[in-house]
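Q: Predict the bound structure with alpha-D-glucopyranose.
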Amino acid sequence: MSLKVLFAKKVLFVSSEVFPLIKTGGLADVSGSLPSALKHSGLDVRILIPGYTAVLNQLSELRTIATLTNLPVIEKAELLLGIITETQVKVMVIKSAHLYEREGGPYADMNGQEWLDNPLRFGVLSKVAAMLSGEHSPLADWKPDIVHCNDWQTGLTPAYMKLTEKSEAKSIISLHNMAFQGCYSPAWLTTLNLPHTHFSIEGYEYHGQLSFLKAGIVFADAITTVSPRYAQEIQTVAFGFGLEGLLAKRGHEIKGILNGIETSEWNPKTDPYLCKNYSASNITGKQKVKAALQLVSGLNVDADAPLLGVVSRLTHQKGLDLLLPCMQGLLDSGCQLVLLGSGEKDLEQEFMALAEANPGKISVTIGYNEPLSHQVMAGCDLFVMPSRFEPCGLNQLYGLAYGTLPIVNATGGLADSVIDADLHNIKDGSANGFVMIEASAEALLACIHRAVALFKNDKTTWRKIQKNGMSQNLSWDNSALEYLELYKTLIS
Ligand code: ADP
Ligand code: GLC
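A: Predicted complex:
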């Protein structure tokens, strides 16, 4: 099949979060930027997302295109079509005030308590995605050839497509994080109109529960992960979160495609959140951004102090607990830290206590702050990401683009994108960051000390490493092509 034929194809991209409409993490970044890159390749792409209040408020040209009936519990919802102003990507929205228009986040209320009806909220998302590709689609004029699902929230889609909707479209599930699987009481089978016959080890049963993610893995026509290394890792006990056996069985079919970044959002040359823009060929502006960040964060303004940055969910995955025991040693060697994040309360409190005890040297902001995240990314010298596992990770890619050298553990997408500044890699021009030898506090401290020594003593090599990262093509250009190839294979 020629690429020309493929270009006419319709792709339904199903996701529970999409930047800039709603975001809790990297899934939103990918769901905002990948469909846009696919659209640029000529595909007819539409996103499907729940109608959270924030989504309804931000889309332009929103209009009703169908009434959805025969849904679990709610019976009826409206299907709206709108456009993301920034990218001009079309978005279909499931409007149900009862399910989605609430104060709080997409998965939890204001206090971080998961919504109790999440199986229904994301069961309906999955069901509608399948219906749109099925025999009795409510849309007469737009039927997808490919349904591209993302994570557990959309995991039931491939099952509905095969078992209840008689869909002829091909389905893909992209695995962004095996740690979240959406496992619920089997009572939901009846509520969600899922056949009980497939509630078995070969189907969507997982230790007596209904597993949304397992349904996706079992019934999808293709499986992708967000980095090649993660595709291998999830087939092992250490990273598979109990599904490694099933994944290993389909191992040869799992394709790892490294995420790209949205270069119109994350670009030091044009970033509107920075007081001064800069580029690989003219990096002097980065000094001004550093000074402004130090000032606004209450740190001593000092160009020579190695400034470490963190922007992250504060969870076990991200390994930031490993940074705590390193901090005294780092302060002793003149480092500063600016951290932006939120998550586990213990971690939040420990970092806040450190900041209080070290004014002018450590700044901690608990919460979610888009402009500050860009300023940290640009103003720091080093970006710290000691994740225990990291399916892809976007912040290390942003770090590369901004000349903020990433310090990472060698796992998942971090291992696939960061090349250690050892002598050999510096010499052959491939080094772009620093890689720890294992996920431990000792290894992290040693790695940061190594980076700091280079920062202090060899500015020429430092500049060279910064330039290596900043001149890489980190956009979706190559990765979107890999998805196109996969779609092509599936359709033919
Ligand atoms: P994950 O999705 O596992 O959290 P990624 O590195 O893929 O990790 O993506 C995280 C995304 O969320 C990045 O765009 C990052 O800048 C953003 N982010 C994380 N925490 C915050 C925060 N507190 N404020 C603003 N942005 C944040
Ligand atoms: C998940 C992963 C992260 C990845 C992101 C986008 O949140 O934790 O590593 O970058 O999805 O694919």
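A: The chain is about 40% helix and 20% strand.
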